[in-house]
Amino acid sequence: MTTNISFLLNGDEITCDIQDHWTLLHLLREEMGLIGTKEGCGNGECGACTVIVDKLAVNSCLFLAIEADKKNIETIEGLASRDGSLHPLQQSFVDNGGIQCGFCSPGMIMSSKALLDENPDADQEEIKHALAGNICRCTGYIPIFESVEAAKKLVAENKGGQND
Amino acid sequence: MTNSNKDLTRDFSVVGKPIPKLDAAQKAMGRAEYIQDIKMPGMLYGKILYSKFAHANIIKIDTSKAKALPGVYAVLTGEDVPKKMKMGFYKDNPPIKKGKVCSFRDEVAAVAAKTPEIAKKALDLIEIEYEELEGVFDPEKAMEKDSPLVHEYHKSNVLKLPWSLHYGDVEKARKDAAFVVEGRFSTTWVTHCCMGTSGALAIFDANDNLTIYSNTQIPSLAQKDFLEALKTMGLSNKRVRVIKPIIGGGFGSKLDTYAYEHIAILLAHTCRKPVKIVFDRQEEFTATSTRQPTIIDIEQGCDKDGKLLFRDIKMILDNGAHTSWGATTPSVMMMPITSLYRVENVRYDAKCVYTNNTYSQAMRGYGNPQATFAIESNIDMLAQKAGIDPIEFRRINRNHPGDITPQDFKITSCGLDLCLDAAEKQLRKNYSKEKGVGIGVASLIHVGGGARIYKSDGCGALLKMDDYAKVDIFTGGTDMGQGLDNITAQIVAEELGLLVEDINVVHSDTDVCPWDVGAHASRSTFVAGNAALGAAKKVKKKILEFGSKILDAPPEDLVLKDRLIFVPNDPEKSMPLDKLLRKAHFSPGGTMLMADHFYDPANENMGKDFKGNMSMTYTFGVHGVKVKVDEETGKVEVLEYVAAHDVGQAINPLLLEGQVYGGVVMGLGYALSEEVVHKNGKNMNANFRDYKLFTAKDAVKITAPVLETPDKDGPFGAKGIGEPGCVPTAPAVANAIYDAIGVRIKDLPITPEKVLAAIKKRDE
Amino acid sequence: MKPFKYLSPTTIEEAISFFGEHSQTSKYMAGGTDVIVKVKEGLMEPDFLISLKNIEEMSSLHKNEATGELFIGALVTHAVLEKSLMIQNQYPIIYDAVSNIGSLQVRNMGTIGGNLINAVPSADGAIPLIALDGVALLHGPDGERSCEVKDLFIAPYETILKPGEILKKITIPPQVPLTGSAYMKFGRRAAMELPLIGIGVLLTLDDDLKTCKKARICLGVAAPTPIRALKAEKFLTGKEINEEILIEAGNIAAEESKVRDSVRGQAWHRKEMIRVHVKRMGLKCLEIIKNGA
Question: What global pTM score does this model have?
Answer without folding.
Answer: 0.97
